Each structure stands twice: as C-alpha cells, then as structure tokens.
Amino acid sequence: MFADSLPCRVAVLYSQASAVGMESIVSDELARKTFTELKERAGRRLVSGPERSFIPDADLDEFWAMLEPATIDFMIGEWQGGEFDTGHRENGTLALINWFGKTFDSATDVKPLVCLDADGNKYSNTDNGEGSLWMEEFRGEVTATMVFDGQPVHDHFKKIDDQAVMGIMDGKYALDNGRYAYFYLERV
C-alpha cells in the first residue's frame, strides 16, 4: 500500500529529478499526473458538506517543491479554481460564495474572487477588494503572487503545466496555526 501512495511516488519522482539536477522542476506530464491524482483524492472542486477527503499538507508541500515558479505573463487570463481540503479553517468558505476562480486581466487588474450568481453568471466579488500580481519570494523561490487589495493575503503560484497552477494562500490572517491553504487554478 505504501509503495503506491502519492507521498512515496512524489518522493521517488523528486529523487529522480534531483539525480539529474532538477530539484524543483519535473515534466508537465509528470506534474499533470500527480495533479490529477490529487484532484481525484479531493473528490470535488470546492469543499462543502459533511463528507470530506483530507489531503495531508506534506503531500501538497512535496508536490509544490517539484513545480516550476509561475510568471506574471503566464498568469494572465481566466482561470477556474478548486481547493485541496487539508482541514484548514478556510476550506469550505469558497463554496459559500460560489467561487468560480480568478481572472488576471493584467498585473494591476486582478479579480481574485470571481463567483457565480444564482443564474450561473460570473461576477467579481469585491468585498475584500480586487488584486494585483507581483513577483515575490516564497520558500526560497521567486514566483508570481496575487496580492489582495483589501486584506493581507498573498496567493503564490507554481506552474503544473500550460493549463494549470497550484496556489498556496499566505499572509497575516491566512495561516491556520502556521498552516497554509492550498488550491489550484485551471485555465478556461
């Protein structure tokens, strides 16, 4: 059982990448496969209801470490999002606002909380302001980071492949007893 677990596969893949001097970069195919497995473990796009499938922070941290930092130019566009349920206090809050994803029109024009109304129409929830994109250091790497205008929250991004990124929510009030919230975005 343990040999087939995601942490074991990630560790093996990471050590293989390390052997060729690519500690933080794996192929898009390999990253997509691992991402698909994590999404399947999550079971649904947004956390809601009493039935939950928790993913350990360590599994997500190992996956994050293998990915290439995203750039501001790469992030431009419309993205549909989902979350990885780790038991973080933020898990489940996005379902309450019917979050769709994020839209990055430019580095200075970001809609971080694109939601769906009762008819399925998209709108930007501006309760916490909108946002902007910056290149920031996080865990020793400089990567594209979305900063909310109205709250001290920074969403750091790393590239899974050309169609998806993994995100980690960071900031003064984003941490839950030192733990981050993990999510993903897929290009629309």
Structure characterization notes:
- This protein is α+β, with helices and mostly antiparallel strands and 188 residues long.
- It has a single domain (1-188), classed as Lipocalin.
- The chain contains 5 helices and 10 strands.
- Strands 1, 2, 3, 4, 5, 6, 7, 8, 9 and 10 form a 10-stranded antiparallel sheet that branches.
- A hairpin with a 5-residue loop joins strand 4 and strand 5.
- The protein is globular and about 35 Å long.
- 34% of the residues are buried.
- Residues 13-22 have low confidence and may be disordered.
Write the layout of secondary structure elements.
Layout: H1 6-19, H2 28-42, H3 57-66, E1 68-69, H4 72-75, E2 77-84, H5 93-96, E3 99-106, E4 109-116, E5 122-124, E6 131-138, E7 141-148, E8 153-161, E9 164-171, E10 181-187
Helix pairs in contact: 1-3
Brief overview:
This protein is an alpha+beta fold and 188 residues long.
How would you describe this structure in keywords?
188 residues; globular; ten-stranded antiparallel sheet; alpha+beta; Lipocalin; 5 helices
